[in-house]
Amino acid sequence: DEITIATVGSHSSLHILKGAKLEGFSTAVITTKDRDVPYKRFNVADKFIYVDNFSDISNEEIQEKLREMNAIIVPHGSFIAYCGLDNVENDFKVPMFGNRKILRWEAERDLEGKLLKESGLRIPKKYNSPDEIDGPVMVKFPGARGGRGYFPCSTTEEFWKKAEYFKSKGILTDEDIGNAHIEEYVVGTNYCIHYFHSPLKNQVELMGMDRRYESNIDGIVRVPAKDQTELDIDPSYVISGNFPVVIRESLLPKVFEMGDKLVAKAGELVSPGMIGPFCLQTLCNENLEIVVFEMSARIDGGTNSFMNGSPYSFLYHGEPLSMGQRIAREIKLALELNMMDKILS
Ligand code: ATP
Prior knowledge:
By secondary structure, this protein is of the alpha+beta class. The chain has three domains: 4-96, Rossmann fold (3-Layer(aba) Sandwich), CATH 3.40.50.20; 106-122 and 187-342, ATP-grasp fold, B domain (D-amino Acid Aminotransferase, Chain A, domain 1, 2-Layer Sandwich); 126-184, 2-Layer Sandwich (Dna Ligase, domain 1). Helices cover 35% and strands 23% of the residues. The protein is built from 14 helices and 13 strands. Strands 11-10-9-12-13 form a five-stranded antiparallel beta sheet. Helix 1 crosses helix 14 (323-337). The chain is globular, with a radius of gyration of 21 Å. The structure holds adenosine-5'-triphosphate. Adenosine-5'-triphosphate (ATP) binds next to strand 6, strand 8, strand 10, strand 11 and strand 12.
């Protein structure tokens, strides 16, 4: 029977759907009426599944529609956020590309830290309490808040001053402050490295890289330093876009090693491991150490920076290849080899 590649219309769905079409699959997008414009205008979806609210995507009725289409869901960040992690793990009974059990390992900071650390990757030094602060740190808080209330500081006194300030503005609660995650502030250049692990070919591919365009921090840096202090603007780190980037070639051995190590460790810790796309968000410091401050255990939004291929994905077959098309290609290969169980969960 014909297979349909389906996902929620958001995040990285344009090239997931386009890539599936290029590989000959039928495609479906789950969307609300007021958000369907890009999928119509770019003509990437054969079928539209409408919901009143994105929170309805885990409804039994939607699942039934997807099963009738013989759908494979490609989960991305917004899909997981709207569906809810518990639902994705236990109640969403539609075949999904990748290992759905690994998604919790990116969502929970302790699990994420464990996987990165045990993989032998360099991560920012963690401070257990504000009293330990002995140099520049980045302070983060729980929950998806788009970096609102995150702040850099260098001393214990400064920590409390800023925490109290954000509390007085209603941005942080005492509970947030008690759960503050304090880590080494890494001064460096940003590389979000997009990998693809093929369990069928048993290889880890470097698909592309982006750097983030974040509001308002990337706007603040356009304000001259002498005015910054006067304007008294609080930084936020809300992602609003991405730039494609390449890394100096001599760092590539390290980049491949990092991807290989993560895949090996993920296979041990959360079988069957990392399947398909994943991303390491890194900062490269002046000693050219690549420090990983965040991981995506599924397709990352930064892959939108290479919908028509990246310098790296081009190197494999001399063709422009997006992450979406790479996923569809793996599904096609699994169909040919009769090995769908290796790539779905
Ligand atoms: P998301 O999960 O949407 O990527 P988040 O709210 O979890 O965002 P992070 O990605 O961890 O936040 O951090 C937001 C931004 O803060 C980063 O893109 C980077 O610019 C900066 N940042 C994070 N950690 C550090 C660090 N250790 N040192 C310096 N800058 C950092």
